[in-house]
Amino acid sequence: MGKRNKYRNYALEDIKNAVQMVENKSMSIRSASRQYNVPKTTIIDKLNGRSSLQARSAPNPVLYDSEEEMLVHWVIDMAKIGYGQTKQQLLYTVKKILDHGGRKTRFKDNLPDKDWLYAFMKRHPEISTRTPQKLGKERAVISWQKIKWWFEDFAKYLTENYEEGIDILKDASRIYNADESGFPQDPKSGKILAAKGSKNVYSTCSADKSQITVLACMSATAHYLPPMLVFPGERFRYNPLEGFTEAVLGRTKTGWMDSELFSTWVRDHFITAIKDRKVKRPVFLLVDGHTSHISLETAQLCKSENVILYCLLEHASHILQPCYVTLFGPLKKHWRDSVRDYQFKNPGEFVTKGTFASVFKSAWVNATTVDVAIKGFRHTGLYPFSVENVDKSKVEPSAVFARAKSDQDLGNDDDMNCKDAQVDSRPVTNSSGTYILDPEPVQIADEAETEIALMPSEICDSISCETSHTIVEKLHDQPPCLYPETIIQVNPCNVNVTPHKETNKHSREKAPSSSFELLLVTPNEQETLKKRKTRTVLPKAVSGSEMIKILENRKQQKEDEQEMKEKHKIDRELKRKLKEEENAKKEEKKNEKKKRTEEKKKRKLSKNQKKSEKSTTSRLCSKCLLETDDVYICCEICSSFYHAKCSGVDFSCVHIDDIVSFPYECDDCL
């Protein structure tokens, strides 16, 4: 048996070019074989139709090239809108597609293994594993149209209120941005080197999880103001700025920024700094819309000093805030490195409030570079002032929430998808988020030529609702190990199916099956019936006349409310005192009545005792306590006996028989 020849390495394009050159009679079969390194027998088979151009000598692929391309686009789009897929989710999605299409593979339960995933990632280097950043819904709903509106309103405000108008923004030295961020005393440590296979890998840390607020401010010309370190408390036994005396000390009860401290910083540090640098007025100070930045004192101060205090778009700091976009990321990275170096040099010690400033200084010096400031203002579109400089990919998650609204509610928010968007040949999605292979209407092929006979919307009326729901129920009738968040309900009548004819079984160039149409969908926001509270939209120019008037009205309203509260408090105190007096009188009467009742009981008890004593002894006079033969008289109430002469009644003219029966009441019973 002869030695088998080795396989030649040649690409599909080489085969196509070789066949084309032979068909055009530009080359012979031998010359084409040498030129493109393709075997002659392979070229002859392609010319004679024994095998297609896409055929290969290998097992059947799990997914065809067109299907893999569609899957890659779906993975990328899901990551852009904030619903990125993990490796495990991707494998289960492929399994669901294979199960739905009735395909049999070499994998157990049709679940691709890690080798297939590795080869898939290698075939498509445009995707890779990344660590996502958390994005709240408030920031996820920020659309491109809202960004454009903010830029338009900003330019309109400058044009209407200042002679220079928008030309003010051409001077980079007059544009500043200030923002706060928290720096934990014990930041999270990254990955470290350790013995392979170690079960327990530790990193010593402090039990104190508190953080220090840092206020940073920089200009478009890389002028950094000394940072303000905001410590909780009012009195310190230590020097909070030890090791970093250039910084500014801030103190609040909670350790967070408040309106009073921010106003103090603007008055004592920001205005002083721009005066020392002789910056031309007016000067811009761009901040977010936090309540600590909006107060009447700060607004009046900025207006008197010709400082334009202007708020950025709400919930858009990750897009329009230069300090957030380029400064805080490197600063926190250097902060982690500084903490790690401090703990390495001082074993057993940790960063405390007393050592925070000295450790933070090195991080601040390393992070505050010229490049950071320039890129921060450029990437946010603030200098040069242009909305086109803003990174549009940061607003792509808003597509999930915009899709659930009508065009009227969006205010024609189609700029991102129309004139500002570039032409893209990737698969598009319909209104329900389903991928469509061909935007043009297609005809439904015969049942023998399609894997699933789904009907388009034109003939959907001929299908019963029961049949449609049955198809959808089959999609969800899967084991619980699948990831249901990646599968969205889709009406089969709204799915456009691209039919494909059966080609060579070894070909990777095959049209995707209808399973992709049903399963590769993007999520939509669920409509809710909850009514959201509408808030009054405040002007962005905090130092403007309109905002100052609103703040004055708020202050007056607050004072009126406080005065009304004081009045109500006084009224409540008066009512309380009157009620207390009334209750005191009632209590006094109650006590007097109780006292009389007790005295009466005591008297009755003493008389009963006397009566019992008299019953056990001879008859005695209750007044003189003597027993004589004189005439006695009895009290009708207490039955006490008295001598007629001791009773105090004149019986001189009364017969002795009448004295005994005289109705007498003693002095004690009167």
Automatic annotation (TrEMBL):
Domain HTH CENPB-type: 55-130
InterPro entries associated with the record: CenT-Element_Derived (IPR050863), DDE_SF_endonuclease_dom (IPR004875), Homeodomain-like_sf (IPR009057), HTH_CenpB_DNA-bd_dom (IPR006600), HTH_Psq (IPR007889), RNaseH_sf (IPR036397), Znf_FYVE_PHD (IPR011011)
Keywords: DNA-binding, Nucleus
Pfam families documented for this protein: DDE_1, HTH_psq, HTH_Tnp_Tc5
GO function terms (MF aspect): DNA binding
Biased composition (Basic and acidic residues): 499-511, 549-600
DNA-binding residues (ranges): 29-49
Residues covered by region (Disordered): 499-518, 548-611
This protein's GO CC annotations: nucleus
Domain named HTH psq-type: residues: 1-53
Compartmental location: Nucleus
PROSITE patterns: HTH_CENPB, HTH_PSQ
Protein name: HTH CENPB-type domain-containing protein
Species assigned in the record: Mytilus coruscus (Sea mussel)
Lineage: Eukaryota, Metazoa, Spiralia, Lophotrochozoa, Mollusca
